[in-house]
Records
---
Amino acid sequence: MKTIGVLTSGGDAPGMNAAIRAVVRNGIYNNCKVYGIEQGYEGLINARLKEMTLSSVADIIHRGGTFLRTARSEEFRTENGLKKAKNVLDVFGIEGLVVIGGDGSIAGAQKLNEIGITAIGVPGTIDNDLEYTDHSIGFDTAINTVVEAISKIRDTSSSHGRVNIVEVMGRHCGDIALYCGLAGGAESIILPEIPNSVDSVCQKIIRGKNRGKLHSLILMAEGAGSAVEIAKEIEEKTSMETRATILGHIQRGGNPTAFDRILASKLGAKAVDLILEGKKGLTVGMKCNEVVAIEIEKALAMKKKLDMETYDLAGILSI
Ligand code: F6P
């Protein structure tokens, strides 16, 4: 009988519960003892773990957040923290660990692999900033949340004839802004990857207004600047009343979509299969609808590319 562990780390993402459930259920199905580790690497260092049963993960597939809770651990980044984590894993006889989280969390899994612990990464972040997988768990739910919010903002934007700028999450990766900009019919999309001058955004707003457009919706990623500042600049330059909305953590909550639940179930189960096959140093993902497993080092070295086709299309359709 193998003993495995599972934790969620970094920013939470809808679908993490479905991934934990898949790890626990596939583990137990394969006669493993499964420990759930609370509060990510912080909880691992402090031995906050409990054995999971089939019913520990009952009634969670549809719930947002992570019932194991999460944290961003500074101590785990230190040599001493890493050593403490290894000691806990050794004491409990954990032979394989599944780490569900974003790039920082998966990099943490690699640190464990380097000191002889088998750790497998599962991408869980709303940011969708990992190049090796087409989608990370939580992204689909987040973009649906944003699209719902901007549809409401569009209503009031039209009523008042205003410009509304909506800031969404994404420090380095503009995927949320990009795909929601396309789905929400935004006039302009401002991303960290592409310098887009406020003047060109203003030109588009004025052209639209002259054509009789009632509203103007602009989507921007947090990494591209401050919506409040840009709103002021737009108002000065266009003389149109402009409002800024920062959607914030609303994007990280809510029931996961069917897409995220399915993705999480497939990836969580695959991570367990890999541990049982004796594989290490890998992270799982989904490419062209196929579950893939790739070396963590390779996966994290891939620079996330912006989907230029989608960006250009959004530009054409919002002309
Ligand atoms: O990494 C996910 C993310 O949601 C980013 O998009 C965002 O900038 C950040 O987390 C916010 O994190 P915190 O939980 O520290 O507010």
---
Amino acid sequence: MTAARLDLSGIRRLYRNGEETIAALDGIDLTIEPGELVAIVGASGSGKSTLMNILGCLDKPDHGTYRVGGQDVAALDPNGLAYLRREHFGFVFQRYHLVAALTASANVELPGIYAGLSTDQRRSRAAGLLRRLGLADRLQSRPNQLSGGQQQRVAIARALMNGGGVILADEPTGALDSRSGETVLALLKELNAEGRTVVIITHDRAVAAHAHRVIEIADGVIQSDSRIPKEASVSPCQTDNTAPRLPRSVSLSGVGSAFSMSLRSMAAQKMRSALTMIGIVIGIASVVSVVGLGEGMKAESLAQMSDLGSSTLTVYRGKDFSDPNYDKITSLTVADSLALARQPYVESVTPETVITQKVRYASISTDAQVYGVAPSYFHTGGYSLEKGIGLMDRDMNEARANVVLSPVAATTLFKKADPLGKSIMIGNLKATVVGVLAERANSGRVVAVYLSYNALRERLTGAMPLGSIVVRIRDHIDTKSAERAIMHLLTRRHGLKDFFIYNQDEIRKSMMRMIGLFNVLITALAAIALVVGGVGVMNIMLISVTERTREIGLRMAVGARRQDIMMQFIIEALAVCFVGGAIGMATAFAIAGLAGALGLPLPILINGQAVALASVATLLIGLIFGYLPARNAARLDPVEALARE
Ligand code: ADP
Ligand code: MG
């Protein structure tokens, strides 16, 4: 702590009051040496507080120069002024200006936050100061649990937190009973005896009598300046209790204390916080569940599509799936499939007919999809064999009763036994198992068995038209153009277009496009909920800034820079958003779980992407909607803010 020399010359401070201009200070020339104990006395309205605000760098003069330790304050920006306040001055106000939400200790620690002290340093220093001022047992008391005299002593401890080389006390005893007033005055004299400069502003001559120098002011002009010889001269000294200082940057412990303070104030105003958060909770819950719903729908519709690979086209009889003449059309034949197999863009091709038939092994019997296919079916559809050799060309040519089982068919009929070589009954046809397909994703729960197409026709169903032809297109060939080529070929062969081509790839694409569009729309709706929530946060933050204007002024007086205030309020907005966001996220998981448990047709699939999106949204909402209130807070003028009721 170094008490700086304070040098004012020709200081004028003007207030415009409608048409007329009032000079609150009108040409003040004054030098206060380090270590002085000065009383400034004058009637109410004489300009004492204005002078003190200028001395403490809370306010700037309109004319004249003011030097603190040789530094001209006119040259400083708001941050520079904040620095001077932090390093040199300690304020004591008539009405204490303690932050009601904070304990005595936390109030004293406040300036330490802006000086970059660590939490431990702040805590131990505040405890030391409070102990010294006789408040050792009131560290955790709130201001409303303390008497006026005790509160003023807390305020003095706060003034000493960062060193307090110059103590500026504006009517420090004005609100106190005479005994508490005596204690406070004795304390200020003691601090002066340590070498600190103490400036006491008072309208009370009895108080002024304690000083070594009394400056009388009236109508913004110094009337007299008299020194009372000191009993023992105290030389200004460097005392050892200067607070240690970290390099001044945004300190993590500052962020931490802003965050914990906002959590505490949320807890203190539960109803209000809950109402504020509701918008965020609803917004985040709907964004997350809506994005999850989109994901779930995508996954579900993919699972519903056939297992055939994306590069297969299927040719069906008729105009479309609901063609009434379907049964009468017999033009689609195995010969078509052989013709297609010769096309350069075709990788492989297979006829396919499906019927439903009872299959039975020993005592187990079940309905199955019985496929009649060419041996190339498995390659065409991208199936692989788990065991056995599968269907061969001679199974087709000789219509042999050999059958391949789907994994579900194998486990349904054979449990864990080996089906290979066993005979199963398909309707009245006895067929030998020659293969079991390998499991694959999305393969569903259908019991399917595969005969050669000829075996199906000749041994099971008798003459019936071919169901469809599955064509696998070569890699790198566009399914759309292959579809056109097949269309031409078959139309020519049939003489008319009595078939249609199901292009699963195209359908999947357009389905995904639709789901994507749907997603964008409902996400936009959910985002609106989030924005409404953000506006709610902004509203409550604006109210909070108004309610806490004096606290903001006080924080500035003890050295907070604009960005410190800004950060404080943005962190508070973020804290509300994050708590709300976390509850919203939990709500979304609960909705998803509930929908699953109740078997509702809401396939909500919450993935990391949805969670990440929600977190980013929460962060952005906090930043965007916290910005305006925080900026309002940061732009407050400290003098006006402190004077606010
Ligand atoms: P004191 O502290 O001695 O009572 P002040 O310094 O508060 O006096 O005020 C000095 C003069 O400046 C008074 O006439 C007061 O009305 C005027 N004044 C102070 N602050 C403002 C302000 N913000 N706007 C207009 N006039 C002001
Ligand atoms: Mg005043």
